[in-house]
Design brief:
mainly beta; Immunoglobulin-like; 3 helices; Beta-galactosidase, Chain A, domain 5; 29 strands; eight-stranded antiparallel beta sheet; 3 domains; nine-stranded antiparallel beta sheet; single chain
Length: 451
Amino acid sequence: MRVDTQAQKAACYRIFVNAMADLPFLIGYHYFMWADEPALGISTSFPEDSNYGLVNEKDETYEVLVKTATEVNRSAASRHARSALSGNLALDIGGNTVEVANTNVIAAHGLVRISAAGQSRIEEISLAAGQKQRLSLPAQTIACVELQNWDGTKQRAVSGPRPGPLEVANASASTLADAPVVIEAAQPVAAWLHQLAPGATEKLPPPGNAWTKPNRLDLTTEGVTWSGNCQDGNLFDHIQAGNLALGRLVLGIHQQLAGREQWTECDRTVSLRLQEQPDAWLIEAVVGYGETGSENSFHAAVRLAVFKHGGLVLARPLWVENTGTRNWKLAEVYWFCRPAIRGAAADEVAGGAGVPDYYRAAQFWTDAKLGGCFGALDASGGWLVNYWKGVAADFHPDARFLVEQTLPPGARWAADDTPYLWIFAARDAAQWRTVADLARRANASVILGVP
């Protein structure tokens, strides 16, 4: 994992070394490396000029990391002496009690974090084979319980009064500020949570405006305008941040037909309706490709929430239907952020930290000279997002959701459990960091009510 600060680097070191010391079969570990490589690195093909060291290239100590390493390594032997082979624990919540069970034939241990009413506590659990342990939870309070097993895998559950229709709850131990939510219901609601205290629940008002059927979209938010002609299959054919044009947004699918792999973008808008809400506009549209009855034609319904804050759109498919004459497999559904930043195409590059395994998850396009950012991120673990540029300067803004379902003519794939993809646009290329942090906080904290 790559991080931003020495404090984060030291925290990662502590987590890793403690995890290694907890493995009974481990005989040792080492740290790479003692000193940073100079700016030119060790070769042109693999420079290794990142900040790895305990000291820099001038032999100056990274004090925070060295202090942490000294502390952690001093206790590693005693921690390792307590280690034991472990199975995974299971988590179950009923009423005001959480039950942790070991269903293995060997002992198991893990950590349970309970967050409720603005407080958080951690319980260390060690259970013999077949043993169970119950922990009490606060009554009439939403509590988030997270179990971390010895191998790092996690299980999360929530207790207390579940949010009702059009309600949102904060299940974390900290105040949640500035988070977008979309509640799926007969009348969907999109809202921007300005501030929600730990354990608190907020009821959102139902939509008050009727749906309209515009001939064109021009939705102006804080710093970003999302425009579309409602005809050519693009949800937005022109996205602009300040004085900088960024690109367009279109849905596509990956089809497997008669041994061929086809990546097909929508080329027509069948229908579109718009509803303005206090914090966002909702768009529901049917888009498609090809004339109905052609070999690989299809229709797809989508829902988007265009928020009036943050240059942010949450988008997901609702269904995809085969309107053609032959069977084909729907392998994947895509959202494509096609770049068209004003300036030379050669200057448009995939942005970000520029290093692998960076802890903030976001992919976007930017212009090396003009700036700007236009991209997507997966806030929930369902979408696979990867932006890259081919040798022929072709752009690949891949945000894909795996389906793998064969559709005969007239059949439909229902995307009932498909999460929203976060799509963002900004004039400042550094804005992607803010959006990535926001997505991480929201995913860990927000519980949506059920219809």
